């Protein structure tokens, strides 16, 4: 039954009331006059009928170009997004699609959805709900399944992530002392020394190591870009303990990233360490790089981020004590500091520095 209001009169006092047939909520019209009460009833029913009429008109127009407009639900949109993704991104969307917070709109027709329906999902959900519902809403807009934004961009609730921090050296050493599994121990050590993502490090192979040149090179899983890192004695000592052919971490490379993260979290919980994850090793690497004066340009290349803003976000907690210019000049004169190409050198020979010519 379509929503409407009905009129009735209470015997006690003779006041007229209306009742919502959908919510069963009752409301006084503040009058005992039947003609006035009837006019108010008709006005209220017209206010309900007009949006529904507008919706039917919109459906009629949109159906000319999209036959599914009157039946397409938010679950259909979720399924469509999942089909466009692959790998770990597809896994994340499959998990997001099962969130209970989305149940109120899951079977609701997209074109019949109001802003309050999305706000109800956001209120019942988490940060993840906010992130994925935004993307789902924008996906429907870009596919022309929504003729207009249900929630304007500036009115979406702010995405507030939990504070992130780097793992400290003391915490890392504590984990190493307690870790009995040699493969996991070596894995955590390389996370500390390389700063790579847990997936990239878990999938390293012996063939990625160039022993004569002391470099390790691999294609990043997320971006496909090449990472090539020179390693020192500490990293070499770790890798000498690993297989000489095939995957360096035969077990961990077969485990889902979520399971590796859970195993690490369990170890931290057993040691009373809170607020860190495997991703905290990347924060730690970036902060260590900043603290020791490692050039930001080199750190960006090592972490796989081209944006200075991204790297600064990783290293925002680093406390830096600036060296005196005198000491820095002395180290440069001794050849202990790698000199970056000057702007003039770049201008004179742009093709050697990645700039377009012509």
Overview of this structure, please?
A 3-stranded antiparallel sheet has the order 1-2-3, covered by helices on one side. A 3-stranded antiparallel sheet has the order 4-5-6. The chain has helices spanning about 35-60, 75-85, 85-95, 105, 115-125, 125-140, 170-180, 180-195, 200, 235-240, 255-270, 280-290, 295-305, 310-315, 325-335, 345-350; strands spanning about 5-10, 15-20, 25-30, 210, 215-220, 225-230. A hairpin with a 4-residue loop joins strand 4 and strand 5. The chain is elongated, with a radius of gyration of 30 Å. Helix 8 crosses helix 12 (about 280-290). It has 16 helices and 6 strands. With about 350 residues, the protein is mainly alpha-helical.
Helical content class: 40-55%
Count of distinct strands: 6
Number of helices: 16
What is the mean pLDDT? 84
CA radius of gyration:
30 Å
Low-confidence stretches at least 5 residues in length (pLDDT < 50)? 342-358
Q: What is the assembly state of the chains in this entry?
A: single chain
The rounded distance between the terminal residues' Cα atoms is 70 Å
Tell me the fraction of residues in β-strands, as a range.
Answer: 5-15%
Structural class: mainly alpha
Q: Helices and strands, in N-to-C order?
A: EEEHHHHHHHHHEEEHHHHHHH
What shape does the CA trace take?
elongated
């Amino acid at each position: 039954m379509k929503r409407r209001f009905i009129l009735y009169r209470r015997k006690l006092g003779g006041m007229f009331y209306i009742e919502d047939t959908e919510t069963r909520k009752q409301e006084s019209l503040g009058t005992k006059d039947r003609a006035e009460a009837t006019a108010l009833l008709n006005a209220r029913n017209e206010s309900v009928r007009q949006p529904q009429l507008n919706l039917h008109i919109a459906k009629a127009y949109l159906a000319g170009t999209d036959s599914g407009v009157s039946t397409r639900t938010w679950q259909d949109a979720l399924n469509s997004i999942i089909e466009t993704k692959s790998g770990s991104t597809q896994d994340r969307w499959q998990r997001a699609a099962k969130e209970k917070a989305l149940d109120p709109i899951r079977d609701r027709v997209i074109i019949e959805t109001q802003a309050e329906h999305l706000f109800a999902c956001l209120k019942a959900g988490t940060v993840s709900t906010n992130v994925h519902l935004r993307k789902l809403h924008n996906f429907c807009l870009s596919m022309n399944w929504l003729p207009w934004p249900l929630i304007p961009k500036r009115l979406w609730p702010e995405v507030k992530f939990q504070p992130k921090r780097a793992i400290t050296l003391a915490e890392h050493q504590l984990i190493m002392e307690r870790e009995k599994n040699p493969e996991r121990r070596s894995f955590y050590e390389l996370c500390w020394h390389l700063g790579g993502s847990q997936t990239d490090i878990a999938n390293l192979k012996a063939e990625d190591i160039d022993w004569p040149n002391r470099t390790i090179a691999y294609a990043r899983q997320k971006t496909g870009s090449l990472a090539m890192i020179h390693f020192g004695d500490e990293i070499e000592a770790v890798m000498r303990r690993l297989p000489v052919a095939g995957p360096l971490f035969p077990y961990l490379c077969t485990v889902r990233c979520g399971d590796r993260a859970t195993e690490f979290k369990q170890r931290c919980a057993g040691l009373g360490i809170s607020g860190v994850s495997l991703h905290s090793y990347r924060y730690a690497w970036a902060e260590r790089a900043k603290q020791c004066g490692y050039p930001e340009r080199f750190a960006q290349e090592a972490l796989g981020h081209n944006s200075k803003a991204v790297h600064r976000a990783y290293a925002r907690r680093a406390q830096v004590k600036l060296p005196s210019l005198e000491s820095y000049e002395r180290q440069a004169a001794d050849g202990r500091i790698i000199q970056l190409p000057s702007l003039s050198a770049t201008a004179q020979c742009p093709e050697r520095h990645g700039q377009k010519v012509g």
